[in-house]
Write a structure and sequence with these properties.
It contains no helices and eleven strands. By secondary structure, the protein is mainly beta.
């Protein structure tokens, strides 16, 4: 769960049997909730949500088997979600949902563990 620059909360979860990742956000700040909407296809775990420097939410979802790390983001704070792109590194298999954190310069750091037991990091500027 995370809040975006519009003041609304968003929650993300994995669907039954890993059918996909879904998100639901508040209709208005401190208000009721909109319907669940698809966030990504097949998913190994619930997406990691992070807020970037300008208040837009970014989501990172790991596919089953860890071969692909998908990335989606809000186009504007509280707005529509971009269709997304792959964020992982080809050939690097991940074994756990990543975590993301914003640093003091406004860059988003994404950390994940590989099948070799190493922690990888990538920066989203």
């Amino acid at each position: 769960m995370a809040g975006d620059g519009s003041g609304r909360l968003t929650v993300a979860a994995i669907g039954p049997s890993g059918v996909g990742a879904f998100a639901r956000r508040q209709a208005v700040p401190s208000g009721g909730w909109d319907a669940w909407v698809p966030l990504s296809g097949w998913s190994a775990a619930a997406p990691a949500l992070a807020v970037n420097a300008d208040g837009r939410l970014e989501a990172f979802t790991l596919t089953p088997g860890g071969a692909r790390l998908d990335h989606r983001w809000q186009i504007t704070p509280g707005g529509e979600t971009h269709p997304g792109a792959e964020f992982g590194e080809p050939g690097i298999r991940l074994v756990a949902t990543p975590v993301a954190a914003l640093d003091a310069t406004g860059r988003l750091h994404v950390f994940a563990v590989t099948d070799a037991g190493r922690v990888r990091t990538r920066v989203r500027a």
